Amino acid sequence: MAPASSGSLSVAPATPGDWALVSSWAAEEGWNPGLSDVPAFFAQDPGGFFLGRVDGEPVSAISVVNYSETYAFLGFYLVRPEFRGLGHGLATWRAALAHAGDRSVGLDGVPAQQDNYRRSGFTTAYRTARFVGEVPAPDRPVAGVVPGAVLDPAAIGAYDNACHHADRPRFLVRWITTPGHRVLVRVVDGRPAGYGVVRPAQDAARVGPLFADTPADAGVLLDALAAEARDFGATRIAVDMPESNPAAARLALERGLEPTFETARMYTGPVRPVARERVFGVTTLELG
After folding, report:
1. Largest CA distance in the chain
2. Sign of the torsion angle spanned by Cα atoms 258, 236, 210, 46
3. Peptide bond between residue 33 and the one before it cis (omega within 30 degrees of 0)
4. 177-189 tens-digit pLDDT
5. Residues 248-262: pLDDT tens digits?
6. In the structure, what pLDDT confidence band is assigned to residue 138 with cuts at 50, 70 and 90?
7. Which residues contact residue 267 at a Cβ distance below 8 angstroms, ignoring those fewer than 6 apart?
8. CB of 131 within 8 A of CB of 248?
9. Are 5 and 82 in contact (CB under 8 A)?
10. CATH architecture, domain 130-281
């Protein structure tokens, strides 16, 4: 369909139903969204999702999700190809970014957009690479790994808080209970030493987060998560690993995963420090 360039753009909050369409756009861009992500995304900040329309037709999208009084994350910045170059993307960006107020905002930017983000006040912190491939499933259950349902959710939340720039209880409770999401916890000496989630996606199963005390703990979790992925029919996994933890890429390469594309984590201002050495895989590039 040719773009209706004569129409004006209207940007308004989106519904979960709208976001099913946006997720299909993300799949067309090769982002490999999870099949059941939307409810968890909206649980954190229902007002943080925006859709741009021209003459009533959806043409652009963006999310600016507020996590705390000081931190927000921007994602899902999309314009349908036939409507690009008309200013709709920038107009959608400006309308939605106001939702963050004076919070520091983070994003994961693809290389083609990073200069634009810098002009908007974002500074690069580090790169993240997506590693994809087949991981042989272990022949037997992995020792020292238990289903997330066995633990008090508060214990998982406490571990997550150390690895993210803001507490995110509303998101997390949905993320670890969404049907299809498999949650595993690494337990050492009776306490959590890491946790991870794998979920069905458009292509390879997505692993995220992958948080662990040590590379050995992360490796045990990744192997167990690969087994879970095979259990729901996936033979390939994808995990987004930050270069701020060099052990993450080594872990992936040791298992035959290959880097496919990279993004840059960027911020507009200061953010709460995290235990970077524990972050082997980010939760999602869409919500941080």
Report:
1. 65
2. positive
3. no
4. 999 999 999 999 9
5. 999 999 999 999 999
6. low
7. 104, 105, 106, 122, 123, 125
8. no
9. no
10. 3-Layer(aba) Sandwich (3.40)
Give the fold, CATH level 3, of 9-105: Aminopeptidase (3.40.630)
pTM of the entire predicted model: 0.94
Q: How far apart are CA 267 and CA 162, in angstroms?
A: 19
Structure tokens at 177: 């209970």
Query: Which residues lie across from 133 on neighbouring strands?
Result: 237
Kindly state the tokens that stand for 218: 């992360």
Within 10 angstroms of residue 215's Cβ, the number of other Cβ atoms is 17
Tokens of 55: 């003459």
Joined together, the tokens standing for residue 12 give 């308004």
